[in-house]
Design brief:
Elements (H helix, E strand, L loop, with lengths): L2 E6 L6 H11 L5 H7 L6 H13 L4 H17 L4 E6 L1 H7 L5 H17 L3 E9 L4 H11 L7 E7 L6 H13 L3 E6 L6 H8 L5 E4 L5 H9 L3 E4 L1 H7 L8 H7 L2 E4 L11 H10 L4 H13 L7
Parallel strand pairs: 1-2, 2-3, 3-4, 4-5, 5-6, 6-7, 7-8
Helix pairs in contact: 2-3, 4-6, 7-8
The protein binds zinc ion.
The site of zinc ion has 7 residues, from strand 1.
Length: about 300
């Protein structure tokens, strides 16, 4: 069973909907987003600009529903059976102040009901901003409170990998006391050493990307059975210097890798094109099958 193991609400909106909204709101499209839609590699900062632009459109329950619908449609059309959806209430609700937490959850809930009706499993992973530091993580946990919707399964850090994970450890501990699983974007725009540090000092049980880690770290991840979400299209656009992609080496080391689309509304892709990209890296049929097996076995949307 194929699950989209890593996809962001803020990067989910379909380009056609974004263009319509821009026309309706009188907004002009940033050049960074045009470049990403054309399939060009961009610096991480330019990606963040495009990501923020998409985020600003998520200012109503209806817009959030539209974004979840885009995830559902993309996942189902590619033959997927569910998705782990990363989203940032701290940014949308507290920072941009453009939508209430209640409206955000209502939009997600309505979207997940539609996903379930199509036979798809879904859950939310709260995403805090690494470079804003642990205070940002605590503020996010303060915001969402103790009574989390049942579909919230995890907590993660994203953004720029600037603040050491040992400083995030108290936030991760607090998330775990709420019953959340903990993940981190690591070894994407920061050094590979962040991957091991996120596990050993942050205590995270899942890594997103991890692509700058060295062979010894891949062995370490395999030994600890730490799942890694791998997003080839996103990596090609935002980490073009990591070439060749380490997915084959990761799988051969025994790492429990699975595919995710990351931000397919910004960097066009779906589970099918991600699988084709993985195959083009020279994976054997057996390795491709393992990728699919891990996809479901470690999916949080199938564990809530
Ligand atoms: Zn991500």
């Amino acid at each position: 069973m194929l699950i989209d193991r890593h996809t962001h609400l803020e990067g989910a909106l379909d380009p056609a909907w974004v263009l319509l909204e821009c026309a309706r709101r009188g907004l002009s499209l940033p050049e960074s987003l045009r470049r990403l839609w054309r399939g060009e590699a961009v610096p991480f900062e330019a990606f963040i600009e495009a990501f923020l632009f998409g985020s600003r459109l998520l200012d109503s329950k209806e817009a959030v529903l539209e974004a979840v619908r885009a995830v559902t449609r993309r996942t189902a059309d590619a033959g997927g059976r569910g998705f782990d959806l990363w989203l940032s209430p701290g940014f949308l609700v507290a920072h941009l102040k453009q939508i209430s937490l209640e409206e955000l959850w209502l939009g997600v809930e309505a979207g997940f009901a539609e996903a379930r009706a199509r036979g798809l499993a879904a859950c939310v992973v709260l995403d805090a901003v690494n470079n804003l530091g642990p205070a940002n993580g605590h503020a996010l946990l303060d915001l969402v409170g103790q009574e989390l919707p049942l579909f919230v399964a995890g907590f993660s850090t994203g953004g720029l990998e600037r603040v050491p994970f040992r400083e995030w450890a108290p936030v991760f501990d607090r998330a775990r006391t709420l019953g959340l699983r903990v993940a981190a974007h690591a070894g994407e725009n920061g050094p590979g050493a962040n991957v091991r540090e996120a596990v050993l000092e942050g205590g995270v049980s899942r890594i997103v990307h991890g692509l700058r880690a060295d062979q010894a770290t891949f062995d370490f991840l395999a030994e600890r059975r730490i799942p890694v979400d791998v997003c080839p299209a996103s990596n090609r656009a935002l980490a073009a210097d990591v070439d060749p992609h380490p997915l084959p080496r990761m799988l051969r080391a025994g790492v429990r890798c699975a595919l995710g689309t990351d931000d397919p509304g910004l960097i066009p892709c779906d589970l099918a094109t991600e699988a084709q990209a993985a195959e083009a890296m020279g994976l054997t049929p057996d390795e491709l099958q393992r990728l699919q097996l891990f996809s479901a076995e470690d999916a949080w949307c199938l564990q809530i």
